[in-house]
Design a protein that fits this description.
Elements (H helix, E strand, L loop, with lengths): L6 E7 L11 E4 L10 E5 L4 E5 L8 E2 L5 E6 L4 E7 L9 E6 L2 E10 L8 E11 L4 E7 L9 E6 L3 E6 L2 E7 L9 E4 L4 E5 L4 E6 H6 L10 H5 L9 E4 L4 E10 L2 E8 L2 E6 L4 E6 L4 E8 L6 E7 L3 E6 L2 E7 L4 E9 L2 E9 L3 E6 L19 H21 L5 H7 E7 L13 E2 L2 E2 L2 E10 L3 E9 L4 E3 L3 E7 L4 E10 L9 E9 L9 E8 L6 E4 L7 E7 L6 H4 L14 E6 L4 E6 L5 E6 L5 H18 L7 E3 L5 H43 L5 H11 L6 H14 L6 H4 L14 H15 L29 H8 L11 E2 L17
Parallel strand pairs: 1-5
Antiparallel strand pairs: 1-29, 2-3, 3-4, 4-6, 7-8, 8-9, 9-10, 11-12, 12-13, 13-14, 15-16, 16-17, 17-18, 19-20, 20-21, 21-22, 23-24, 24-25, 25-26, 27-28, 28-29, 30-33, 31-32, 33-37, 34-36, 34-38, 35-37, 38-39, 40-42, 41-44, 41-45, 42-43, 43-44, 45-46
Helix pairs in contact: 7-8, 9-11
Length: about 800
């Protein structure tokens, strides 16, 4: 509650059980007296139009009969009232009244009275427009730079802007992607309409773009319109504010600058007329209305913000200057000159409480009673604090807020991967090339301590590995029970998975406490290497080689990879061959004299899985030996050139796949007819060629890898790896678009490696090298690089990182890793 209350200058209660909103209040010299004194125009959803000219005898007086100049019932609900130069041939002010299906423009005039009843006021209908669509709100201004008159723009509930040039209808345009209408305002300096879409974006549209865009007589564009008649409606600028907007106001300080003020559900934004954020203020309450107006201090702006606690706050930019208590919750607020009193604050509530007030410093009559001083008993306070903490713990337990140990005791997940492959493979496609596809059995046991309901087990493995069943449901599990499920995992594809780790995730809820609260437990497991790999013949020569340095003596490969060497060999095996299903060969060598291991293969992408397995198994080996300081590192140059060749090859395959998909779409009907005839002929036994044809017709080429990785790397470059605030302030795009080539992606990956080599860290903590940043919602945009980095991209990647040591076991990777998925 505010210490100061708004000083009531004049007030009135309008009608009975009438409703009002933010567009129902307007202040202007509507009868054109030229005295500079405003009149209060109020419209209601019941269709009543009222015009007031308050003349209180003393401060705080209620409405007198002579204060009401005019009251007329217009039958239709009044959505908004505005005053402007709406009639052609004159610059007199007229009143525009917006109904749901009609726009009416009136002239308001008064006649001097000769008796004690005073002056008489009347309205005259100048013209009206019947609307083909249901209206939501309107704005007005000198659209297109016209002089001496105002044009009106009405927004319909389905997102159409209808422009009226006074007595005539000009055109209508649909806003792209409109779902629900938002607040609408017009900026005369930029000649633009500002609104907030249902996507929570502030959008600006030039009037000239609207005028020359395709006509919106029909919502769907015809083919002829798409080909040439009219131009596409393009947004001038957009800004994601992350919340719905209640109102928009435009303030012009001079001819060279104006600001856009947006009142959100929890924040107050001030934008430049080009869409950049000038400042914003987070509100600690739910606002109901606002009004920016000029400040006495140059370069600042004052803003009145009303909220649902019946408070009216006065801000100067983002600084709170005053807070005052109102007798009602305002839905509309205006400032005007009434009866020679300037700066009167006029507020209107949703149930018709109209009040004119001004700010004063009279405090409330309530005074806090004096508190008797007494000495503090610290022992008693300590006992009371402990008792309160015990009560809080008991309440938290009763509301389902459990400690982690208790939650883990409720459900215990055990995963056992069979040490041997299945004697009979469960893979539906039994062969990859000339190799038989094996499978391994995985058992998951769920042991419950309490009753659980709606338990669902989900199994995740890295593609192209797939489980025979990845979803299990248990409607109700009794206390102290164990449920076990089994499934097989096998390879379904001709490429190598990025890793052999799987994850068993169980979601469930408890029927006791607070039923329905979902809880999740998970357990990770590792699949055997022999599921995707067979013993192979080592090779002395290879096109691609990778050397891993360690700080410990070399370990026999037979100890690290049992089952991948001949049993007749001795324990000190320093060379081993691996052959992936499908034919790819990888050779692993352990140095006898140094602490190094070398992985080599004819294909660059085959190096990763064996390298990853080597690091994991070395770490496990030394952990069992009690060694805590074991590390792996890579001291060579980052092989970006080979990696980029894979990216280009993958992108070329993608383009070819899209062309093939277009060709198949044209011939799919004929192929389906031929297939049905052949299937009828062969009946139950379907030949293999027909199965491959069915897969080809149903399959689609996998896309999106280049866009996803570019977005992930760009996000890192503009957050934790950013070099300046300029990169952090870039606008973000909310959609992934198909690239024309891989140049931008390779440039961003090179910058990522360069900044990591220079000490960058992939984290957003405050102790990181880069300062923490606040990123607006949305996607990622391309990162502009300096001239030095532009030249560095064109150099050979082997020259970028000479002699730098990369710790393989400690370097984190982004959520979408650019080192995965190319082989797919």
């Amino acid at each position: 509650m505010s210490l100061f209350k708004a000083r009531d200058w004049w007030s009135a209660v309008l009608g009975e059980k009438e409703e009002f909103d933010q567009g129902c209040l307007c202040l202007a010299d509507v009868d054109n007296t030229g005295s500079g004194q405003d009149k209060i125009i109020v419209g209601s959803f019941m269709g009543y139009l009222r015009i007031f000219n308050p003349h209180p005898v003393k401060t705080g007086d209620g409405a007198q009969a002579e204060d009401l100049l005019l009251e007329v019932h217009l039958q239709d609900p009044i959505l908004q009232v505005e005053v402007g130069k709406f009639v052609s041939g004159t610059e007199m002010l007229h009143l525009a009244v917006l109904h749901s299906r009609k726009l009416c423009v009136y002239s308001v005039s008064g006649t001097l009275g000769n008796v004690e009843h005073g002056n008489q006021y009347q309205i005259k209908l100048m013209y009206e427009h019947n609307l083909q669509r249901t209206a939501c709100n309107m704005t007005y201004g000198s659209f297109g730079g016209v002089k001496g008159r105002d044009l009106i723009c009405i927004q319909s509930v389905d997102g159409m802007l209808m422009v009226f040039e006074q007595e005539s209808y000009a055109f209508g345009r649909f806003l792209p992607g409109s779902l629900l209408p938002g607040p609408l305002a017009y900026s005369s300096r930029t000649d633009s309409f500002i609104t907030v879409s249902s996507c929570r974006h502030v959008e600006s549209y030039k009037y000239q773009v609207l005028a020359f865009a395709t006509d919106a007589d029909k919502r769907q564009e015809t083919e002829q319109q798409k080909l040439g008649s009219g131009k596409r409606l393009v947004v001038d600028w957009t800004l994601n504010i992350g919340e719905q907007a209640l109102d928009i106001r435009i303030m012009s300080f001079n001819q060279s600058a104006s600001s856009v003020f947006v009142l959100g559900e929890r924040n107050f934004f001030c934008l430049k007329d080009n869409g950049q954020i000038q400042f914003m203020k987070k509100l600690d309450y739910s606002p109901s209305c606002f009004l920016p107006y000029c400040s006495v201090s140059e370069g600042t702006v004052n803003t009145l913000i009303g909220n649902h606690h019946s408070l009216l706050h006065v801000f100067q930019d983002v600084t709170l200057k005053w807070a005052t208590q109102l007798p009602h919750v305002p839905v509309a607020v205006r400032v005007g000159s009434l009866h020679d009193l300037k700066g009167v604050i006029v507020t209107l509530s949703d149930d018709g409480h109209l009040q004119c007030s001004y700010l004063g410093t009279d405090p409330s009559l309530f005074q806090a009673p004096k508190v008797e001083s007494r000495e503090l008993n610290y022992d008693a306070l300590d006992s009371e604090l402990k008792e309160l903490q015990r009560i809080i713990r008991d309440v938290n337990k009763s509301q389902g807020v459990w400690p982690m140990t208790e939650r883990e005791d409720d459900l215990k997940i055990s995963v056992m991967v069979s040490p041997n492959l299945d004697s009979v493979s469960q893979a539906p496609d039994a062969e990859v090339g000339t190799d038989l596809v094996p499978s391994v059995t995985v058992k998951v046991a769920l042991q419950t301590r309490v009753a659980l309901q709606k338990a669902k087990l989900s199994v995740y493995v890295q593609p192209p590995l797939v489980p025979s069943c990845d979803r299990f449901a248990f409607e109700l599990m009794a206390p102290e029970t164990t449920r076990t499920v089994a499934f097989s995992v096998y390879l379904k594809g001709s490429f190598v998975p990025p890793e052999l780790e799987g994850n068993a995730v169980v979601s469930y809820s408890r029927p006791t406490g607070k039923p329905g609260i979902p809880r999740v437990s998970q357990r990770k497991f590792r699949l055997p290497l022999k599921l995707v790999c067979l013993p192979g013949q080592p090779s002395k020569i290879a096109s691609h080689k990778l050397t891993v340095d360690t700080n410990k003596s070399p370990v026999s490969l037979l100890s690290l990879f049992p089952g991948f060497a001949n049993q007749s060999e001795d324990d000190q095996v320093n060379v081993m061959g691996f052959r992936f299903l499908g034919g790819s060969q990888v050779t692993l060598l352990a140095s006898k004299t140094s602490q190094r291991y070398r992985i080599q293969s004819e294909q660059f992408e085959d190096l990763w899985l064996i390298t990853n397995e080597l690091i994991i198994r070395l770490q496990d080996y030394f952990d069992k030996q009690g060694v805590k300081d074991f590390t792996c590192s890579f001291s060579g140059s980052v092989p970006l050139q080979e990696y980029f060749e894979l990216i280009d090859h993958h992108f070329e395959l993608r383009l070819n796949g899209e062309k093939l998909e277009e060709l198949l779409s044209e011939r799919a009907v004929q192929f389906r007819a031929i297939q049905r005839r052949l299937l009828t002929r062969f009946k139950d036994k379907t030949p293999a060629p027909l199965q491959h044809l069915d897969t080809l017709l149903d399959g689609t080429y996998k896309q999106g890898w280049e866009e996803t990785v570019d977005a992930a790397v760009s996000y890192l470059l503009k957050t934790c790896l950013s070099k300046s605030s300029k990169e952090q302030a870039l606008n973000l795009s909310s959609q992934l678009t198909k690239p024309k080539d891989t140049g931008r992606l390779k440039k961003h990956i090179t910058l990522l490696c360069d900044r990591l080599a220079k000490g960058g860290r992939l984290c957003l903590s405050v102790d990181a090298a880069a300062p923490p940043t606040m990123v607006m919602p949305g996607g990622c945009a391309p990162i502009p690089e300096s001239d030095l980095e532009e030249r560095a991209v064109e150099q050979d990647s082997a020259e970028l990182f000479p002699g730098h040591q990369h710790l393989l076991a400690e370097t984190p990777v982004p959520e979408v890793s650019p080192l995965r998925g190319i082989s797919e």
